[in-house]
Design brief:
Length: about 280
Amino acid sequence: MTINIGLTGWGDHPDIHEQDIGSRHKLSSYAAHFPVVELDSCFYSIMSPEQIRSWDQQTPNNFSFVVKAYQAFTGHDRQTYTRKEIKSMFQSYQQQIDPLIESGKLNAILFQFPPWFDVRRKHIQRLKFIREQFQCYPIAIEFRNRSWYQEQIIADTINFLREDEWIHTICDEPQAGQSSIPVVPEITHEKQSLIRFHGRNVYGWNQSGQENWREVRFLYNYNDEELKSWRDRVQNLSQQVEQLTILFNNNSGHHAYANAKRFQHLLGINYTGLNAKQIDLFSDQ
């Protein structure tokens, strides 16, 4: 049983990078603090394998990446593609992450669906199609529409994810209507599970149409009581899987780092085998 705690992205964390010399050291210094990171660049474009390999080489052997699925796969780009076109994109996407497969550092591919991806037949068919194309990959799913967790539907949702071996993403987020989901601590994959902490900023959550939505959507600082309320839940979940990955995404106000470190302390976790701190990397120069 392993619990890996990390952040979504490595570049925007002043508490980590205040001693960095240039941006090229940011992933290396991040990997001195945490054993896992979410790679969201792959959501915006399909990267080259060489770029992925360069990031891979900046991290220690026991490090892993949760890689965001490309936005065309989840429907965020609101474009229509033929099956041939989307299959071609699937192949290109898979080729880009080959370096992580080779190094054993692929934690999971995260398919985070948009708020309008509700429970209906065509969306279930889309999930089945995606699963067929990613048969040999660990793929996680995160819903952003509450319909998947309606009282009369939730058991079917969880059973569907189990049958198709999706890794269910458990979320802590604002309870802000149809575009948010409740905490559903269900394991659907025998080997691993994923938890993402988005904060609890109800006001900011539904401001995606506003100019400053990125500044407020994940603006939240978890207090000790809120983190402690998750401690027993996490310990219980970790007994059900080989690997439990926890990612803090509440970084609009740069709170994710401190919250992740505090939660690590509450769980009594001390990581070994991480990169040396930057001050050590340059001590002989």
